[in-house]
Amino acid sequence: MTELTGTQTAPAPSPGMRIDIIPVILFAAFAAAPLLASASGAEGYVLSLLTRVMIFGLAALSLDLILGYGALVSFGHAAFLGIGAYAVGILASHGVEDALIQIPVALAASALFALVTGAISLRTKGVYFIMITLAFAQMLFFLATSLAPYGGDDGMTLPTRSLVAGAGFLENDYAFYAATLLCLTGGYLLSRAIVTSRFGRVLRGTKENAVRMEAIGFQPFRFQLAAYVISGMMAGLAGCLMANQAEFISPAFMTWQRSGELIFMVVLGGLGSLHGAIIGAAAFLLLEEFLPELLHAGSFFLNDDVRWRLTENWQMVFGPILILIVLFARGGIMGILRRGSHG
Amino acid sequence: MAEPLLELRNLRKAYGALTVTDDVSLSVRPGELHAVIGPNGAGKTTLIHQISGMLSSDSGQILFDGENVTHLSMPQRVRRGLARSFQITSILPGFSALENVALAVQARHGSSFRLFGNAAQERALNEPAMQHLNTVGLGGRASIPAGLLSHGEKRQLELAIALATEPKLLLLDEPLAGTGHDESLRVVETLRRLKGRITIVLIEHDMDAVFSLADRVSVLVYGRVIATDTPENVRMNEDVRTAYLGEEETV
């Protein structure tokens, strides 16, 4: 009886993919922002801030791919930013200034570093994985500080932004903004494709229950390593952009604090939604940028001395705000948005 | 007599001074439903862990389908057709029932390094998955997140997942554990349908189920096999009666 009553056919594929509205709004906002920037009168500042937001968005996105979908807490993700940046800087200092060479080299170097360190790190779990990724990133950090020909501790100024096929249009801030937006969009679409693919399903399954995955014949290690390499390459690309925006490279790009900030951005935005990581990066950087002014404006009722001290030490407020968001907004900013749309 | 599909030779596992399985030798014939019974703590689950590859054995050999698999990992054994279920339900709670099974179909059909294409929409994965769900009577619950299924349904889902790996041999670790009366009848009914199509090693406490399903029964007491025989003969066996059955209930 159960056989007859229970027989169902596989659900037909739904017509057309459901399109989530939030990422559409997000990318539309990034695309429209330059128009507003030119109207604001401070276009250089606005463009540079938003370009920075998108670069960190790309880095946080790459981290979300392994952290949000694979539960791999990499505490050394800033290493890839450093690899991307130093690939650009070192090549440029030897006269190779074309992005068409710099970027493939940066991606290959990131992939290699991810492959080697991932193959070792992924043999550990939990807190050991966190520590070993941190250790590898620190190794790279100290390597960079000892690279005297490339600026050592102090870092190194780049002669120019990267050329593209010999053309120097990235010197224009609008063009660089567009290029960054293109990279972010590409990274987002690629990540979106990956998480819904067969590969992504294995990754998500391993996050939920690794033993179950082994019991149906998967070797989680191979999938986690591949994801780690893809994620590292994307962060490496963000590093290339970062060096170009600052026209400067320095070991400070890959401090452990930077790795921690990336984790924070992902958690702040909401784990495992991809665009949440970009929103988290934006929230983090914008709050960091404007909090001193907000504090100054908001504390008008205090006397000048206290007001000045508060503004000066804005980080004392920044930390607790971040902690409160994580504590009370489960699922980060995406969690709030989802609840908003259901209620 | 046909070659055994699974043969255990002098298998042993100890944790320090505690010997959990001791010199276990067992052969499972192709097509049979071979039950392993024994009182709590007899080492039944450890034995399943050893056969499936989740635990390594201290000594002894495991031959599966003519091949020595003693030193292979669990995923490698699964790919050779050795599937298992867990005593404590092990599913992917955030995935739908269908996706849980489709993932096992995907594991069987390789090419899991595909980075593009929406896996959830693939008919080649969903249709076989649906068939397996129907086999265990969960067809109507395909789109429910597995974590929200009832306990009995989870047990059935686990059976469907194991079937989707297209096993030659199915190791079932107490598939009736914790199920209600109706649910357990449904699982027994499912097992009866699978019987003969797939070789099954069944560990179970429910004696009614064991004696109505099994072709042969092995009795494990303190890590040792004290008897392997037909259900009727095991029921009559004096050693078994004193060592095991007599303690708890009269069969």
Account of the 3D structure:
The complex is a heterodimer of chains A (343) and B (251). Chain A is mainly α. Chain A has a domain at 20-157 and 164-254. Chain A is 73% helix and 1% strand. Chain A has a two-stranded antiparallel sheet with strand order 1-2. By secondary structure, chain B is α/β, with parallel strands linked by helices. Chain B has two domains: 1-81 and 167-251, Rossmann fold, CATH 3.40.50.300; 94-164, no CATH class. In chain B, 37% of the residues lie in helices and 24% in strands. In chain B, the strands form two sheets. Chain B has a six-stranded mixed beta sheet, with helices on both faces. Chain B has a four-stranded antiparallel beta sheet with strand order 2-1-4-5, with helices on one face. In chain B, helix 3 packs across helix 4 (123-135) and helix 4 crosses helix 5 (151-164). The radius of gyration of chain B is 18 Å and the shape is globular. The model of chain B has no long low-confidence stretch (mean pLDDT 90).
Q: Please trace the helix and strand order of chain B, writing H or E for each element.
A: EEEHEEHEHHHEHEHEEHH
Rg of chain B, Cα atoms, Å: 18 Å
Query: Count of helices of chain B?
Result: 9
Strand order of the largest sheet of chain A: 1-2
CATH class of the largest domain in chain B: Alpha Beta
Low-confidence stretches of chain B: none
Rg of chain A, rounded, reads: 22 Å
Give the biggest beta sheet of chain B.
Answer: 6 strands, mixed
Report how far the terminal alpha carbons of chain B are from each other: 30 Å
Largest interface: A-B, 36 and 54 residues
Helix content of chain A: over 70%
Q: How much of the sequence of chain A is in beta strands?
A: under 5%
Low-confidence stretches of chain A: 1-6, 10-17
Q: Give the ordered list of helices and strands of chain A.
A: HHHHHHEHHHHEHHHHH
Oligomeric state of the chains in view: heterodimer
Q: Major sheet of chain B: order of its strands?
A: 6-7-8-3-9-10
Shape of chain B: globular
